[in-house]
Amino acid sequence: MRRLFIILLAFVLSCNIPTSASPKHEIRAVWYTTLMGLDWPRTQATDHATMEIQKQELCRDLDRLQKDGINLIYLQTRTRGAVIYPSEIEPMDAVFAGKYGKSPGYDPLAFAIGECHKRGMECHAWVVTIPFVKIETARRLGNQSLIHTNPAMLFKQNDMYYLDPAKEETEIYLSRICQEIAHNYDVDGIHFDYIRYPENTPNNRQQWRRDNITRIVRKLYNTIKAEKPWLRVSCSPVGKYYDVSRYPSRGWNAYGTVFQDAVSWMEEGIMDMISPMMYFKGDHFYPFCADWQEQCHGKLVAPGLGIYFLHPNEKNWDLTDVTRELCYIRSLGMPGAAFFRARFLLDDVKGLEKWVRNFYYTTPAIIPPLNAGSYTADNCNKNTSKREKRFVLYASREYPVDTANPENLVRIYWGEVQWDELTRRLWGMHLAVTYLDDFGNESAPRDLTPAPRRIPHNFAIR
Hints:
Distance between the termini: 44 Å
CATH class of the largest domain: Alpha Beta
Shape: globular
Structural class: alpha/beta
Helix content: 25-40%
Strand order of the largest sheet: 10-12-13-1-2-3-7-8-9-11
CATH superfamily of the largest domain: Glycosidases
Largest sheet: 10 strands, parallel
Strand content: 15-25%
CATH architecture of the largest domain: Alpha-Beta Barrel
Number of domains: 2
CATH topology of the largest domain: TIM Barrel
C-alpha cells in the first residue's frame, strides 16, 4: 500500500483535472457554521420580516450547494454552550434573535432539515462537544446554563470553559443533548466536533485521557443508536492520526496531542464515518490521508479539506492545492470529502465552486449506505421508521435504464416528485426509480415509462 501511495502521489502532483468520472456513490459534504453567523444566519430575526430574510438566506445557500453537487450538510447545531433549536437542556444561541434563549420565531433546526431534504441532501446535526463557552460570554448564557446549574462539570483553560472528559456527568450531559436531537428531529446523522482534550493539555496520563474520550464516544454512539439505529454517527478528528513511517506529524496529531483515538473507534464500531480535519497540503496531507484510508476498518473516511486557506486573508493557497487533493482522494477510492467551510465554496474563492460544479461533481451522487445489505422488492416498503421515503430517479434515452451508470441519475427525492419541473428535461426519455431505505441501501429499479404526473407516497416496487 505504501508503494501504491508513492505512485499515486507522483501522478496526482501533475493532475489538474479529476482522475475519474463522478462515481454514483460519494460523500460530498460541507460544514455549515452557525457560530457567530459565519455561514448562517447573516441577519438577526427581530420581527416577522427579518425572520423570513433569515430563512431565505439558508434557502439561497442550499440552492447553490445543490447545484454544486453537495449532498450532505454538517449543520452546526450545538455551538458553545448553546443550540439552534428549542431545548430543555441548553439555551437557543443568541445569533438567531440577538439574545441567548430568545426564539427567532421558528425552529431553525427543523426548518433546515426540511429544506435540505427538499433538495435531496442529508442533514447531519454537528455537535461541538467538549468546549463549552468563552469565559467572557458565560454570564450571558442565562440561568439554564451549566455555569449556574453544575459548574463543577467545567474547567477553565486559557479563555474557555470546557466540559471535563474525566467526569461521568459529562458523557451523561452530552448524551442527553444527542438523545434530544435524535428523538425530536428527522436528522440523518449526528456529527461530533472537538470530541477531544483541548490543545496544550498536560501531556501526562495519556492513555487515561484517551480512555476518557473513548468512553464518551461509546456512550454517545450507543445512545443515538438506541434512539434511531439508522442515524450516521461521525466525527471530525484532528487531521493527522499519528506519525507515519515516512513523515512525522511534528507534534500535532489526534492520538498523542489531544488524546483522540479515532482509529480504535472505527475498529470497535462506535463510529460510522469520519471527516478528519486535513487542513494541510503537500507532505502534510498525502501520506496522512493514505494512513486514514489504510486504518479505516471498513468505515467511511471522507477527508475534510481546509478550503478557507484559499482566501488571500488566510494562506492564499493556489486552487490546484485543493483540486489535487480531491483528485487524490478519488484515486485512492475513498468515499468522498468535506469542505470547511460552506462560505468559501459559495464565495467561489479562487474559482473553486466553478471547478467543482463543472469538472468534479459532474453528476449527482448517493451517499454510500450505512451498512452492507441487499434491498429487494419484498422489503422495499418496510422502512424501519415513519420517515418520508427517499427514492432515486434515473433517466436515459436507452431502455432499460442502466441505474448503475451515474450519468443516468437525475435526483434524489424525499416524499413526492412534482413532475412539472422535470417534464421538459425528461421528455421522451425512459425513466426508472429506486427506493433508499433508512440505512441508504437501494432497491431494485422499477420502470416508470411513461412519466407519471407524480410518484405517490404509497408507491411500491413489485
